[in-house]
Structures are given as C-alpha cells and as structure tokens.
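Predict the assembly for these two chains.
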Amino acid sequence: MGSANTPLATATSLAIMTRDLNLWYGDFQALFDVDLDIKSGIITALIGPSGCGKSTLLRSVNRITERLGYVRTGGSIHVHGKNILDPDVELLQVRRQNGMVFQRPNPLPLSIRDNVTFGYRLHREERGRLARAERDRIVEESLTKVLLWDAVKDKLDQPAIELSLEEQQKLCIARLLPMRPQLLLMDEPCSALDPQATSAIEELIWDLRGEYTVVLVTHNMAQARRASDECIFMLMGRVIEHSDTGRMFVTPTHTETADYIEGRYG
Amino acid sequence: MTSDVAPRTSPLSDLDRRDAAWYWDKLAQVLILVAGLSGIVAVIGIFVFITKEGFGFISESLIPAEFFGSIAWRPTSETRPTYGILALAAGTASVTGLAMLIAVPFSLGAAIYIGEFAEGKTREALKVLVELLAAIPSVVWGFIGMTILNPLIIDVFDVPVGLSVLNAGVILGLMAAPIMTTIAEDALKAVPDGYREAAEAMGATRWQVIFQVVLPAAKKGLVAAVLLGVGRGFGETMAVLMASGHAINLPTSPFDSVRAITATIAAELGETAHGSEHYKALFTLGILLFAVTFVINLTADIVVRGRSRKKR
C-alpha cells in the first residue's frame, strides 16, 4: 500500500499505474486492489481464466465500463501520470487517448473511409467539413500503418462491413490512430479470427510496439508468449504475477500461474 | 438377473414406429399451412370482391377527366350525377400530410428516447403506454376531435368551425404516432450494440452516437415506420370522418373543412341501392384506396428488403 506514494517521476514514465483499483458490477466485485505498473512503449499481455477480470481491467482504462450504469470504480488509474478517475478529467478525452480494440471486429456501419476518420472528426477543434486533402492524408497514413492501404485503396467508399474479419480488425485499429492515442487497449483482438489472420494482426501489433503502448488481453497462451514483452497473470479479480513474458513462461513464481500456463485449469 | 431384463426388441422392428408426437407434428404442420394460406386467400378475396363490385362503374360510367379532374362529387344529383374525386383526394392528402408532419418528429423522438435513453422501469412503462395508445379505437379519437379539439381550435384561432384539416390532422397524427414509434423503436433496437460501444469507446457523445451511427444504421427501418404510418393515416376512416368536417372542399388553409375518400365510403355506402351506379362508384374509390395503400406497403417492403439483400 506504501506504493501509493510513488514519486511522480516514476509515475510519469509508466504508461499505466493503478493503485488499489477495485471495481464492482452492482454487488459483484470484479477487481480487488489491483496495483499495476505497465511500462510505456512495450506490449503487455493480460492472461488468466475466463471471468478473472482481465477484460474488466482493460476496459476500465478506457472507462467504457461506465456504459453500464451500475458499475462503481474505486482507487486510481494513472495514465502517464494523470489519474483518469479524477473528477476534473473529461471522460470523452480519456476515451480518445486510450483507444480500444474489441474482441469482435466492430467497424461502424459507414464506408471504409468514414470509419477511419470517424474518431478524428469527433475530436478535431475546428468546425465544419474536413478538408479533402487532410482527410485523404489521414486515411492513407492510418491505413498504411495497419498494412491495409494496398488492399482497400480502390474501394474506400464501400461499406466497411464488406471487408474480411482480418481487414475489419485492422480497420478498427487504424481508426484509432488519427486520434493520436497514448494507449492501444486490445481485448482479445484475434479471438474471432482464423490462424492466418491472427498472425497478421500479431505482426501488426508488433509493428506498432514502441510508438504505442499496447495492452493485450488474450486467452491464448501461445499468443501471450510470442506477442508480448511483459505478462500479467490474473485470477479471481486479483493480479497474481507480473513479470517478463520469457520469465513467466519458463519460471513462474506462483503455483497458480504455473498451473494455469500448463493448462491444469482455465 | 438376466431373466428380469425384457428381451430386446430387434432394432429393425422399431425403425418405422410413429408415436403420438409424430402425428401431432404433422397436424401442426397442416394447421400452420392453412393459417398461413388464409391470409393470402383473404387478401386476394377482398381484392376480387371490391374489384367485382367497382368494375361495372369503371367500364360503364367512368369519365377519367371528370373522375380525376373534377371537385364535384354529386352522386345523388337528380338531374346529372357527377363523380369527381379531386376534392376527396385533396382532403385525404391534406389530412394525411399534416398528420405526418406531426407524427414523424414526435414518433421518432419518442422512439429515440425509449430506445436509447430510457432505462429500466421508465422504458417498460413507456412501451406499455405507447402500445396502449395504439389500441384506442378510432371512434374514440374522432370523439376527442369533436368534443375537445373542435372548441379548442375555435377558441384559440378564432375561427367559426373547428372541424377541419387541422383537427383531423392532429387527431390522425396522434393515432399514427404510436405505431410508428413502436416500429421505429424496433428498428433502433436492431442496431447492434457493438456499433454504439465502438463509437463511445472513441469518445463520441450520446448525440454523436445517435446521429452519426445509430440513425444511419437504422435508416431503412425508420423509413418503413414512416411509410406504414402514412398507410395507416391514408386508410383511417372514422376519426377523419368525425374530425374533418366532412365537407367537399379543396382546402386552401388548415382551417378548411374537407372530406376524405375513406369517410365518403363509410358515410354513403349504407344509403345506396345495392348495384346502383353510386354503389359501384364507392367501390371504385375502394379500389383506389386499396391500390394506394398497396403501393405504400410495397414501397416500405422494398425499402426494408432491397437494402439488406444488397448487403448480403
């Protein structure tokens, strides 16, 4: 608990720092005293059995959890040194800066182009229509970044729902980039995809590493092992172990972690 | 031990066994088929009936220029009966148009509130109330138009008669709104929640989510809701008969009394001799109504299906 007074210098070098984070869905407590320090610029995987709270933790950083009126959150979540649960923090800005990618690709029912610019249009300062040149630049940059530009550059006006699932998920990542997010929070981004698409998305996540801080919830042990720098193991709403991915998979320090990784439960 | 066990019947002897469930299933299939066909038979039957009754007028006495171009609906004239539906059509169109001007914003607003904002008990209560509103008999609406709205309009606007386009339009708008609300709300509910979540996770406000994501996604359902409301207004009879003033008139202001096609049929059919020219002319009006509502419903259907078919 003494860690609550961590000096600010350390706090800012961390992408996410949670202290005493508790979260309730009505009467059900989903997170218990979560203290985490997630480093900036790397990929951190959240693993654990179903219902362990890993998705809840991820979603609470975007505060999309608050869509449900009966959710209560206690404690603090510092993102780059600022507690996003502070009353003076604007919810919409939190969501803009901490981009979410969901389990099922959920492109909006708009054209590919409008999907990419949607978030950007919501948050830009000036009013009125987006200038064509600016729009085209944003669309090309974002889609190039997610390795989708060549595949869709000739059909930007088509509905995004017509793309394959892999392309849809890439688009869902691409639409966050124009908003200049600090974090990319990915909630099992490959669970609806086939193995080839999964490896394409993993490569993309690996490409984004460094420029963005990525937190990746996954059910897939192999994915956590090959696609993350650090790994956090959660069980029943608590963080059990947080270490280097290599170390966690070779020499886990807790028996629960070892048992889960070896597939004895979960 | 083994003696207690009944000898197993050969599996082959059991393969053609039909138990009660099999017969019930067959019976249910037949019943459902009959129920389904009965709807089609009824529609075709109605169409054949009104066509048969009205066809004599169309082939013998109908003068297109007079029928569509004249405002004189004088079927009971001793010297020369004329059958001009222009004023009646204008009456129906003006009342329906005003009703839609009122009903569309109200019902879409109500649907958005119920579907996107209201929660828990408020939402359930509102849905029940809206459905209850849809169940009010039209004669009661007509009664409200005559006894409440009529004096109110006379008072507020200082006009001699309160039974007018305005009165009937308001009443019809209130009548059509609940159905439109229910259908529009269904359309909003059919929009996957993932769209809302995606937009909200990017920092969109509720209004931005609704206007930029939900409404465009529900567009075809909303258009269908409006068209069905138009169809409802078009075919409504009793309330319009009571609230419109029932005077043959080309309306020039909302305070003019008008007469609707439907109301004409309802008011006159009982007083015509079976098989007379007047009787057949009224059935011709019925064919016209049937055709227009058919086209409206068909358009609604095409709007709803055409787009979803393109997407698959």
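The beta strands of chain A are 14-25, 28-39, 43-47, 71-79, 82-83, 98-101, 183-187, 213-217, 230-235, 238-244. Chain A is about 35% helix and 25% strand.
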